[in-house]
Structures are given as structure tokens and as C-alpha cells.
Write a sequence for this structure.
């Protein structure tokens, strides 16, 4: 009877951790979707601001002071868009990192349970699927906010050339994929 109870206990642990991992994965999805929605609105507004500036050039000769005030207001608006775009990308990046860290902690908890009840857990699959698939998913979920950050920093003229940053990101991803199997997370 005690062995049956241990198996049921381990099954409950697996189900609970699997549910927590699904919850964290849903949070990653929601955070990225919020960011993409906000970024889309910000890019649209930025495009309209460029159009407004181009239209205002034709009226600049008739009232130069009003045009100067308009450009000043437009510059402030664009700076606010850059701050909001950069800030939302950074906040999303932190949220995605937090969710992946929680998933990793849950996975470690399950591994500790597996070490305690090895014979009962041989039939349980890994709750997050294959390791390489998970790594690629993590990289993609981190890349979206990172790229948003790079684009807004470039628009705000905080980066001289975003291509260098993107190349560095790609190299980090490739190195991470190559080295991941050799890293022991226990």
C-alpha cells in the first residue's frame, strides 16, 4: 500500500508542476502579445507623426512660430513613444525571463521528485517536451522583446547601428544552442 501511495503522490506532483508550467507558458504568450499590440500602436503613431511633419512643412512658411511649436510638440511626442516602446519591451523581457525561471524551478522540483521515486517516474514524460525544442522557444520568446528594445533605441538615436546588436544577438543564440547540452543545471 505505501508504494501505491507514493506513486499517486508523484502523479499529483507531476500534474501540479505540469499545470504550473502551462500557466507560466500562457503568461509568456500574454506578455508578448501585449507588447506586440502596444508596439503596433506605437509604430502606427510614429508613422502618423512623420506624415504630420511632412504635411506641416508646406505650412511652415506662412507661420514659422506655429510650425516651430508644432515640431517641438512632435519631438516630445516621439520621445515619449521611444520611452514607452523601450520601457514596454524591457518590462516584457523581464516578465518573460521571470516566467522561464519559474518553469526551470518547477522542472528542478520535478527532477528532485524523480530522484526520490525513480521507479515510479520512469513512465512520466518531460513536462516541457524535448530540451532542444524548449531552448528554441525560450530564445524566440526572449528575442521579441529584445528586438523591440533595439528598434526603439535605434529610433531614439541611442544606438548608432542596430545591425551590430542584431548580429550579436544571433551569435549569442547560436552559441547558446551549441553550448546548452554541455551545461549542467542541477
Amino acid at each position: 500500500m505505501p508504494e501505491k501511495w507514493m506513486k499517486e503522490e508523484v502523479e499529483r506532483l507531476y500534474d501540479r508542476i505540469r499545470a504550473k508550467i502551462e500557466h507560466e507558458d500562457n503568461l509568456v504568450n500574454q506578455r508578448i502579445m501585449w507588447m506586440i499590440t502596444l508596439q503596433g500602436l506605437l509604430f502606427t503613431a510614429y508613422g502618423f507623426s512623420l506624415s504630420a511633419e511632412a504635411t506641416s512643412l508646406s505650412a511652415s512658411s506662412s507661420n514659422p512660430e506655429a510650425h516651430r511649436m508644432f515640431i517641438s510638440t512632435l519631438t516630445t511626442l516621439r520621445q515619449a513613444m521611444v520611452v514607452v516602446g523601450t520601457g514596454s519591451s524591457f518590462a516584457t523581457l523581464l516578465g518573460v525571463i521571470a516566467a522561464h525561471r519559474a518553469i526551470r524551478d518547477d522542472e528542478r522540483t520535478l527532477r528532485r521528485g524523480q530522484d526520490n521515486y525513480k521507479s515510479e517516474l520512469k513512465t512520466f514524460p518531460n513536462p516541457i517536451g524535448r530540451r532542444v525544442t524548449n531552448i528554441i522557444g525560450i530564445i524566440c520568446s526572449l528575442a521579441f522583446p529584445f528586438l523591440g528594445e533595439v528598434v526603439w533605441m535605434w529610433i531614439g538615436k541611442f544606438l548608432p547601428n542596430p545591425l551590430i546588436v542584431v548580429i550579436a544577438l544571433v551569435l549569442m543564440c547560436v552559441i547558446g544552442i551549441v553550448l546548452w547540452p554541455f551545461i549542467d543545471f542541477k
Remarks:
- Residues 2-59 form the longest helix (58 residues).
- The chain has a mean pLDDT of 80.
